[in-house]
Amino acid sequence: MLVRILVLLYLAGAPALAQTLCQPNASNGYRVRISIKTALGNQAYEWNENEMFLFRATMAFAMRRCYKTETYNVDNIIVCNQTLRVSFWFVVTSPENSTMLIPKADVEKAVSMSRHRINNAFLLTDRTLEFLGIHPTLAEPVNPDTPPWLIVFGVVIGAVFAGIIALLVSSLLQKRRKEKGMMEDGQDEEDMQVKGVENGNVLDGIYNRGFTDDDRFTKL
Amino acid sequence: MRLQLPNPGLEDRILSHEELDKLETEEAGRGDRPKWDNKTQYMLTCVGFCVGLGNVWRFPYLCQSHGGGAFMIPFLILLVLEGVPLLHLEFAIGQRLRKGSLGVWSTIHPYLAGVGIASMFVSLMISLYYNTIMAWVMWYLFNSFQETLPWSQCPLNYNLTGLVSECEQSSPVDYFWYRETLNTTPDIGANGGLQWWMVLCLVSAWAVLYICIIRGIETTGKAVYVTSTLPYVVLSIFLIRGLTLKGSLSGVVFLFTPNLTELTNPTTWLDAGAQVFYSFSIAFGGLISFSSYNSVHNNCEQDAVIISAVNGFTSVYAATVIYTIIGFRATERFDNCLGGNILALLNTFDLPEGNVTESNYDQVLQSLNGTYPEVIQGLNLKTCDLNTFLSEGVEGTGLAFIVFTEAITKMPASPVWSVLFFIMLFCLGLSSMFGNIEGVLVPLQDLGVFPKSWPKESTTGITCVLCCIVGLIFVQGSGNYWLSLFDSFAGSIPLLIIAFCEMVGVVYLYGIDRFNDDIEFMIGHKPNFFWQITWRFLSPAIMLVIFVFYFITKVTETLLYKTWNPESENFPTLEEKPYPAWIYVIIFILAGIPSLAVPGTALFRCTPVCIKNCNAAGFFTLNSFPCVFFIYFTRQVS
């Protein structure tokens, strides 16, 4: 009988006890602010009891993942002071002793560790699922070995210098060809002057006797 | 009323009309003087020279700040009265005398050679800093080939705990421009050393320029097929993209909304005149060179009108495109500002999302202010006004490298737009550089600085290398300040003086009668009444007025320059500092030497003649006393 009365009292008092544990501005609690419409626009879902249950389950998962030795349950996550904004306070109680709250720092550690998983459960981001007081971890900068701009610069400057060399070489070749052509023309002129009344055949160096003027000797 | 100054020996110095015709038929066979392959190359080169960065980043700002659509009126009027006549004059005189700028002015009168030398100095100084802007454009272009553009987010600080403070206080685009690109020092005296990445970009800019001008107009003529047409293609692409963005039309409407009261403000007319003048690249000597490679009977009048029209149209078109993007950016900023305020209200009062929207924001704010005034005060809500964001009109490098790049980061597929935009800027600048360099190379050849036996490739190469080395001033930490110094002083006052001397020289020394006859010989009909009036009175008068006002404004204002100083009190705003005393010497060199080259060369050429005349007249006659003083003075100077 006494046990039954005690059980009834416990069942009646537990929520009340939970309420006193979870209060706005509680020293070991965090405030959560959710902006579903900002994140999802037309595909925004409604925040209701089921979503709240998912939140508590996710928080329990986060605590389990961080502190592997202890098994947290949905009951260990107590939520209160929900507003229309969709913001509320929550505290985490220890699995062994439901009146003892887990310190703020430990909760923060668990949240930071599983932040990505928590966000994805709700299709939200760090900005739209805010834990006031826990700063989002900054993304590690991706530092490539060679800065990309240097690669593009190398390609451009290589192409330009190749073009310059090609143009210079081609104009050099053109000049040489012109000089050669002019030298041959010069030779033509010289030979014509030396050979006199010969036909202008430069390559033929043999004196062609057929064209000598020896008729004057054969006046028979 | 034909005022004609005495000009003995002019006939001996110029080719007569018959000789010109003979040269025309002979030159067709020989390759002595460079020639355009076809008319298209010539037109594209001139269009490329005239259409430059100023059309994109100076004209839209002027348009918006001087009454929008109303600015078109002074702009178009001065385009017709000032731009077209000067352009026609330069084309005609180049085509007639068939020489570069130095040759043309020496031919008209030996004392006028100073005009050609001044043109060369101005072209040289402008080439030096203009290619640095090309280097900046190339740096941004190289950095655009990444998925996340480096100016879209602040980098993390050293211990990875937060963002770099300089970036956090200003903005990622500001930080990228002032710190990662320029690495600017707080004032012009601290030179900050050479920035190696900018040196690489400067070398690449000069290398690209060299390959395009390596054989003179033979290579330039081929390059302009791309560099002069690509900007129009990109502008059209941006126009289509811009019009589909939210808020673009509000930008265009803001740009063109006329405010006719601005027409009564003399600054509007002055700025319009200056913009027309600088936009046409007159007095650089490049246009005279380009038109001297034409055939004698080319219709230069038609060319001048077409190029002026194209230049004016491009200015308006570019302004429209720029302002669609600026309208988008302003709307984006306005939405963010309002969104931030709405979020603050929702968070403080725990209202459900969607309760406060843009439409009912004012009513909600008023009702909340009535019930909880102290809380509202404590929130420090920002006032968001679209017009304020739209009139954050920026010009110059600020527009291209800060405002526009920020707008690009907000567009989907940003790297593509960034690459397109910077390729367009690069082409615009490169085609202007062709004309600038022509205005340097041809006078150098005429002066005989390089031996005639040297091939063209080596003369252009040496000029490019020397200019690149001198241009290293502009890639130091304080380079940006040097650049705006050069921009304000080297390219402004000397050009006005040169243009004025050009008009006076052609109309009154060469003789407007002879000029009219030449044009009749070249294109078949005499220039009509419009040209006579503008060449003889209107255009020189406009030049004189602009010069006087410009000079007075520059001389009377205290010279301040804007610096990026992270230590200053109102940090993200640029701090205005006065120039140190030794800068005034530099300013005098920049603006004074080209301007003084005009009378200086005249004096230099005049001295031997004067001495000869004085000796002939006898030493101790009364009218030789001023002569003796004059000889004494010039001997001391030289």
Automatic annotation (TrEMBL), chain A:
Primary localization class, coarse: membrane
Keywords noted in UniProt: Cell membrane, Glycoprotein, Membrane, Phosphoprotein, Signal, Transmembrane, Transmembrane helix
Cellular compartment(s): Cell membrane
List each copy of the Collectrin-like domain by range.
26-220
Quote the cellular component terms of the Gene Ontology held in the record.
Answer: extracellular exosome; plasma membrane
Q: Name one GO biological process term.
A: positive regulation of amino acid transport
One Pfam family of this protein, by short name?
A: Collectrin
Enumerate the transmembrane spans.
Answer: 149-173
So which residues are the signal peptide here?
1-18
Topology relative to the lipid bilayer, per the entry, is: Single-pass type I membrane protein
Name by which UniProt lists this protein: Collectrin-like domain-containing protein
Q: Which organism is it from?
A: Oncorhynchus mykiss (Rainbow trout)
From TrEMBL, chain B:
Biological process according to GO: sodium ion transmembrane transport
Q: State which residue ranges cross the membrane.
A: 42-59, 71-91, 111-142, 196-217, 229-256, 276-293, 305-326, 416-437, 458-477, 489-512, 533-552, 581-604, 616-633
InterPro entries in the cross-refs: Na/ntran_symport, Neutral_aa_SLC6, SNS_sf
Q: What is its main location?
A: membrane
Identify the stretch annotated as signal peptide in this record: none
Residues the record lists as binding Na(+): 48, 51, 55, 279, 311, 428, 432
Q: How does it sit in the membrane?
A: Multi-pass membrane protein
Task: Pull one GO CC term from this UniProt entry.
Answer: brush border membrane
Which keywords describe this protein according to UniProt? Glycoprotein, Membrane, Metal-binding, Sodium, Symport, Transmembrane, Transmembrane helix, Transport
The name on file for this protein is: Transporter
The family classification in the record reads: Belongs to the sodium:neurotransmitter symporter (SNF) (TC 2.A.22) family.
Named from the GO MF annotations, one term is: neutral L-amino acid transmembrane transporter activity
